[in-house]
Design a protein that fits this description.
By secondary structure, the protein is an alpha+beta fold. It contains 5 helices and 5 strands; from the N terminus they run αββαβββααα.
Length: 127
Amino acid sequence: MRPDEDLPERLIWATRGRSWGFRFLLKGGQSDPLPVYERSFADLGDEPTGYHRNAGNVALRFPDPLGRRDASGRVIPHEFVVFGDVADEIKSVEDGRRRVWPLVEKAYAGVWETERPPSGADLRLTG
């Protein structure tokens, strides 16, 4: 996946910010990403990091690479469901972090401290 690809169609991304709670920032082209997200993460439990291959996608969870925490002091997790060719290339949490995080890092830096959850436009992802 290149930075100019249509990320909202290729990733489901769930996380939280400093002040706003856990929500989907990208929906992977789904009107309701929750069923796909739940199926994808069903085998990962509550571990802070994880990787699981499903039919046609990869579930990926890791703590914020910069160690950011929310207002309650909890480490912020990033959870992704990755579709397409990139999912085929991800064989571990570290592979996923290397491939996916650079695609969303700047967008997250711009919204994690906002008071309200960001809209898709707030993310300013190319695609």
